[in-house]
Specification:
Number of domains: 2
Largest sheet: 6 strands, mixed
Number of strands: 14
Bound molecules: beta-D-glucopyranose
Strand content: 25-35%
CATH architecture of the largest domain: 2-Layer Sandwich
Structural class: alpha/beta
């Protein structure tokens, strides 16, 4: 069954139709810039405009870069702070006139990787991280998600949030070489490894397609692999969440 998945980020909103039997986006992916300021009303308007461009009925899945509890966004690290406490599921439902399920973006990406991608069939402890504007995290044990983990907000090396130091945006902002940035990622991954002893870590986000550029600088004990669904994992996970909510 085709389900519409929407991936909302701090800088862009992507949408596509997902075939859940294949675990793949099947339509033409559409992307618009996230409105600035990214208030709930402005983002809901942009999402409604995007949805109109797809010819698919039924429930919609939507990711959001924040802690999401029962459809309510509880934090707002890289979006307008008026999202804190907003009932995002109700807001989108009203704007789109259809049932909408809202989940954390990294949790959605992790769910997609565990079902269709690099984590498929993997038991034990798996951590999926997305490197983009911030760092998102999804923790799995025996395939079951522990939601809203927020490992990008660990205090690290004097930074309030490790994402300020090691997200993909820090590489761009500070014009770091792949070696400089990869060494930061290595330090962060080894720190997570000390706490969780994972069996596998999956690196997602836009940088997953450049994995070869920094793989040599990663020295964890556990296996570290790039996300298979690349930057599409959020859209696929969003659609999965919508289908599961029915
Ligand atoms: C947010 C997370 C999100 C991550 C990636 C962080 O700043 O707090 O909820 O998953 O960015 O977008």
């Amino acid at each position: 069954m085709p389900v519409l998945g929407i991936d909302i980020g701090g800088s862009g909103i992507k949408a596509n139709v997902v075939d859940l039997d294949l675990g793949e986006p099947v339509g033409k992916r559409l992307k618009v810039a996230t409105p600035q300021p990214s208030t709930p009303e402005a983002v809901a308007g942009a999402v409604a405009d995007l949805v109109k461009r797809f010819d698919v009925d039924g429930p919609i899945g939507c990711t959001f870069p924040a802690v999401v509890l029962d459809g309510v966004t509880m934090t707002a690290a890289n979006v307008d702070e008026s999202w804190i406490g907003t009932d995002a599921a109700a807001l989108f439902r009203e704007a789109l006139g259809r049932p909408v399920t809202v989940v954390n973006d990294a949790d959605a990406a992790g769910l997609a990787e565990m079902s269709y991608g690099a984590g498929k069939g993997r038991e034990g402890v798996v951590i999926c991280l997305t490197f983009g504007t911030g760092i998102g995290s999804a923790l799995f044990t025996h395939g079951v998600l522990v939601p809203n983990t927020e490992f990008g907000h660990l205090h690290f090396r004097g930074f309030e949030s490790v994402e300020d130091w090691a997200a993909a945006s820090a590489r761009d902002r500070e014009k770091l070489s792949w070696e400089e940035w990869g060494s930061r990622v290595d330090e962060y991954l080894r720190y997570l490894e000390r706490i969780f002893t994972p069996d596998l870590m999956i690196i997602g986000g836009g940088v997953s397609r450049r994995f070869d550029q920094f793989a040599d600088y990663i020295h964890t004990r556990c296996e570290v692999v790039p996300a298979k669904l690349r930057n599409e994992a959020g859209i696929v996970g969003a659609a999965m969440a919508a289908a599961a909510a029915k």
